[in-house]
Amino acid sequence: MNPRERVQAEAAVLEANREFYEAFSQGDYEAMSALWAKLVPVACLHPGAPLLSGRHAVLQSWRQLLDAAPAWRMVSRDVTVHVLGQSAFVTCLEANGDQPAHLIATNIFVWEEERWRLVHHHAGPLTVPQRPKSRADLVN
């Protein structure tokens, strides 16, 4: 992958990550479902919950979470992306809008059907909540 292709891939992964948090914030199950891989195994670890494996189990958990979730604006901050050929991972903090982040997450993507799709989401609690460093950090 040449430097130009890497920059383009990183931007596309960041966009897929942004779409994930947008679907989460809007309680949009259809958008969430479209983001998860269909052709390869997937898994998810919600904070304090057991490992979920397989597309059906993962999407059932998101349906329940999105149906039960209060209205919030889930954002990712301190986002870092690493592209590894046909896969990539993002690390970030998760927060409700401009509130301190209480969770840290890793989102793993694969290139599937001409777009980046999630294969794994893992969120867990931070020992100490972290405030945004600046107003720019509040951008999803």
Strand order of the largest sheet: 2-1-6-5-4-3
**Which class of secondary structure composition applies to the elements?**
alpha+beta
Instruction: Give the CA-based shape.
Output: globular
The Cα radius of gyration reads 15 Å
Helix content: 25-40%
Number of strands: 6
Straight-line N-to-C gap: 27 Å
Question: Count of helical segments?
Answer: 3
What is the residue-mean pLDDT, rounded to a whole number?
93
Largest sheet: 6 strands, mixed
Beta percentage is: 35-45%
Which residue ranges are poorly predicted, with pLDDT under 50 across at least 5 consecutive positions?
Answer: none
The SSE string, one letter per element, is: HHEEHEEEE
Structure explained in plain terms:
With 140 residues, the chain is of the alpha+beta class. It has helices at residues 3-26, 29-35, 55-68, and strands spanning 43-45, 52-53, 74-84, 87-96, 101-112, 115-130. A six-stranded mixed sheet has the order 2-1-6-5-4-3. α1 (3-26) packs antiparallel against α2. It is globular, with a radius of gyration of 15 Å. The two termini are 27 Å apart. The model has no long low-confidence stretch (mean pLDDT 93).
Features of this protein?
alpha+beta; 39% strand; 32% helix; 140 residues; 3 helices
